[in-house]
Amino acid sequence: MCARKLGRYREAAKLMKDLIKEFPLMNVLNVHENLVEVLLEMQAYSEVQQVLAKYDDISLPKSATICYTVALLKARSVCEKFSPENASRRGLSPTEVTAVDAIHRAVEFNPHVPKYLLEQKSVVLPPEHILKRGDSEAVAYAFNHLQHWKRVEGALTLLHCTWEGAFRLIPYPLEKGHLFHPYPACTENADRELLPSHHELSVYPKRELPFFILFTGFLCTFTAGLALTTHQYPGLMARVARIAMGWLSTPVMFLLEKVEAFVPSRLWHHLTRA
Question: Which phi and psi angles does 119 have, rounded to 5°?
Fold first, then answer.
């Protein structure tokens, strides 16, 4: 890491490769993630792909670095020609669908990262310890990798257009999960302890119900309550209905009187007869 900080990227990459080769158990220290970041700084995308091919395995633990770097490389192959207008008109090509799927996969793993990459939230210095899939991991990833996304022209545009669609794929309730285990509910409390107090903590987005569903639910509840009240108190509800009809008929009668005042009586007589 000292060589990395000094800008000696090739030396840093060689040291990390040697460590991974000679001490495989050091993977628990995430040396391969540091190697990915160094290779991205060198723009050695083919070597990054080789590292990801080894570590983006279903049997190995995932991280924001792994998932979002996969998405970055997929986006890099299509983002130069990607246009939201063209995509909405002609649909997505197979390679664009693959890139969007990779973005959705990354967002499901850690949904806090996109807002930092798109600079909708400010990035603070990452904490000493991070929590996988939490806001602390998102802060650390964006702090170290934002420049790599900016370097790939069009990658952030593709991310901006597609990342929120991931939440439509995640089952509801969230306990079911989709591509990964369900998002842990304990991350918010842990992140509050890891991140500074002045940082506005990012929480898991809540799924909002459409207005039509809310309106339908309210209408059904109101109708059921009205029917139950009418069954229990028929006399009272009959008086209430007559009063309500009187209130509703008042403006209608007022409008009819105004119309009669302005329309000639002979014409009004013909209209009423018709």
Answer: 60, 35
